[in-house]
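User: Here's a chain of 97 residues. Predict its fold as tokens.
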Amino acid sequence: MIREEIKKEIINSLGIMGDTNFAVNMSPKNMPFDFSSNALMVLSKTSGAKPEEMFEKASQKLSACGLFEKVEFSKPGFINVVISPARLSSEVSASLS
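Assistant: Prediction complete.
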């Protein structure tokens, strides 16, 4: 599923080892994003790093992975993403097969 792929990309982009107990959820309809994750808020508590700094570290890798069209940070520690049209197309094709 796409949520697991998003979580995997966040984990990889941050170089996380160990506890990855954060959520990836569909964004509310009034938000201009497909999915949001509280990863930075959750992980900043255990690492002591600021969520904004963690996002700066992760944002280039997330943007380059090919899964996302847009990656943004929102306080207090959310990563908001828009899935790339190519990835959405392949997801729809796979589910119709």
